[in-house]
Design a protein that fits this description.
18% helix; 6-stranded antiparallel β-sheet; 343 residues; single chain; binds fe (ii) ion; alpha+beta
Length: 343
């Protein structure tokens, strides 16, 4: 026999396995898995002045024939910059629609929501339901609902877009379809749906039919809550979650929305949880401590509290209340059994 003896080694084994699309667990070493959840998402704050200036410039430079939407996305410095996501599960962007403009009708697997920041009278149509937008309104476009946006008012409108786009991307489920026409026909108004909600619920309303939370209703409920000291949450002040009226469950299957009121001078205790939240400052000014870092915020600013980062909020004003709008990925973590909180 005449063959060359070969002394085997781990390096040779790794190389030969790699050629066959195999990999040894030993390459991970002995460190094992982290003792606590770790995220690449960084605590981050975006100033309204920067977002708004970019929207105004985009208003001059981008038209709705070039781009499906005129949207400025908030990008987390800890994540892949190409994907331009604010967190690993939920995206936040701001959209700007000028008078006489229409953002064409489409639908997609990512679920979206709009929280109106500035401007009145434009509308979003969701599955034929016209939702006229005013500041503080929340409008849902759950996955695969047709939606288009029209501004027939005399002023530009700006709203916050929240989407579960990063999650749907991770699941490789992203798809979009265009409606055959630029706009879908309007069949009814969200006001009609809301006025018949009680009756419709008794008669088994189709689950997709409720899309619009008016600020006038939200504000009333928030103020009623804030009038009751027993309702104060030690970590969030007076927090009102938007529930889906049919299920009484989360706002959407993947995103829980909330508004919270911090009375003048309010300082909450700190806690941490395995869910990630994105905040937008609707009114007031304050400070949020996130881990070792401190973020001062004013009206219009947005910030991210990544998972498992201890956080607490402070209203810096001694005279004015602060109101935060937030989006959390807690529903999906709870559904999968990953939700955990510590204080
Ligand atoms: Fe869309
Ligand atoms: Fe929290």
């Amino acid at each position: 026999m005449n063959h060359t003896a070969r002394i085997d080694s781990v390096a040779l084994l790794d190389r030969d396995m790699a050629r066959k699309n195999l990999s040894g667990y030993w390459r991970l070493g002995m460190e094992g898995l982290p003792a606590q959840p770790v995220t690449a998402v960084e605590p981050c704050l975006w100033k309204w002045a920067d977002v708004y200036a970019s929207l105004l410039r985009a208003g001059e430079l981008i038209n709705l024939e070039q781009s499906e939407r005129r949207v400025v996305r908030l990008v987390n410095p800890g994540l892949n910059q190409q994907l331009a996501f604010a967190t690993h599960t939920i995206q936040i962007s701001f959209q700007y629609v000028k008078p006489a403009e229409n953002a064409r009708a489409h639908r997609h697997t990512p679920a979206a929501l709009r929280f109106v920041v500035q401007g009145s009278g434009a509308y979003t149509t969701v599955n034929g339901q016209q939702c006229v937008m005013e500041p503080g309104d929340l409008i849902l476009t759950p996955k695969l609902t047709w939606h288009d946006h029209s501004n027939e008012s005399k002023e530009p409108i700006v709203w916050l877009d929240g989407l579960d786009f990063p999650l749907v991307t991770a699941l490789h489920q992203v798809m979009q379809e265009r409606y055959p026409e630029r706009r879908q026909p309007i069949e009814k108004s969200s006001e009609e749906v809301m006025s018949h909600l009680g009756e419709a619920l008794r008669n088994g309303l189709a689950s997709g039919e409720f899309f619009h939370y008016k600020w006038r209703d939200t504000e009333k409920a928030l103020r009623e809550l804030a009038a009751s000291p027993a309702a104060r949450d030690r970590f969030d002040g007076y927090l009102l979650e938007y529930r889906h009226p049919l299920t009484n469950g989360p706002t959407m299957t993947t995103i829980q929305c909330a508004v919270q009121l911090l009375p003048p001078g309010e300082e909450t205790e700190t806690h941490r949880h395995t869910s990630t939240a994105i905040y937008h400052v609707f009114r007031g000014s304050g400070t949020t401590q996130i881990g070792e870092r401190r973020f001062d915020w004013e009206q219009g600013d947005s910030f991210v509290v990544p998972l498992w980062h201890a956080h607490g909020h402070l209203n810096r004003s001694s005279s004015d209340e602060a109101i935060l709008f937030s989006m959390s990925d807690a529903p999906m973590l709870k559904a999968l059994g990953f939700y955990r909180e510590e204080f």
